[in-house]
């Protein structure tokens, strides 16, 4: 059980480093883009504390539904101060 926590800790450290390099909050999405994902993205973005104003997305997907992508982009733009 401890090994999974070690992997999670390593991933979180790497994401922290990536955020510092990019000077942005990093959102990772792994999996198909299907209905309901936009709600998860919205909730995830809204949970970010001490926002940096920019959001970088690490995306690994086989594809999905373009309308869901459009809603996700709208959410990310809404919460990014770069577009304000």
Number of domains: 1
Number of strands: 2
SS-derived structural category? alpha+beta
User: Per the principal axes of the C-alpha atoms, what is the gross shape?
Assistant: globular
Strand content: 5-15%
Order of helices and strands: HEHEH
What is the helix content? 40-55%
Distance between the termini: 44 Å
Number of helices: 3
Radius of gyration: 14 Å
Q: What is the arithmetic mean of pLDDT?
A: 91
The strand line-up of the biggest sheet is 1-2
Low-confidence stretches: none
The biggest beta sheet reads:
2 strands, parallel
Protein model, in words:
With 84 residues, this protein is an alpha+beta fold. The chain has one domain (2-83). Helix content is 52%, strand content 14%. It has 3 helices and 2 strands, in the order H-E-H-E-H. The protein has helices spanning 2-22, 37-46, 66-78; strands spanning 25-30, 55-60. It has a two-stranded parallel sheet. Helix 2 links the parallel strand 1 and strand 2. Helix 2 packs parallel to helix 3. The longest helix has 21 residues, at 2-22. It is globular, with a radius of gyration of 14 Å. The N and C termini lie far apart (44 Å). The mean pLDDT is 91.
Produce a short descriptive summary.
The protein is of the alpha+beta class. It contains 3 helices and 2 strands.
List keywords for this structure.
single chain; 84 residues; alpha+beta; two-stranded parallel sheet; 3 helices; 2 strands; 52% helix; globular
């Amino acid at each position: 059980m401890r090994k999974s926590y070690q992997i999670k800790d390593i991933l979180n450290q790497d994401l922290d480093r990536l955020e510092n390099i990019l000077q942005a909050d990093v959102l990772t999405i792994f999996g198909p883009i299907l209905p309901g994902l936009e709600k998860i993205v919205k909730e995830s973005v809204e949970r970010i504390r001490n926002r940096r104003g920019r959001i970088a997305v690490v995306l690994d997907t086989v594809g999905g539904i373009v309308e869901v992508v459009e809603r996700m982009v709208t959410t990310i733009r809404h919460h990014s101060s770069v577009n304000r």
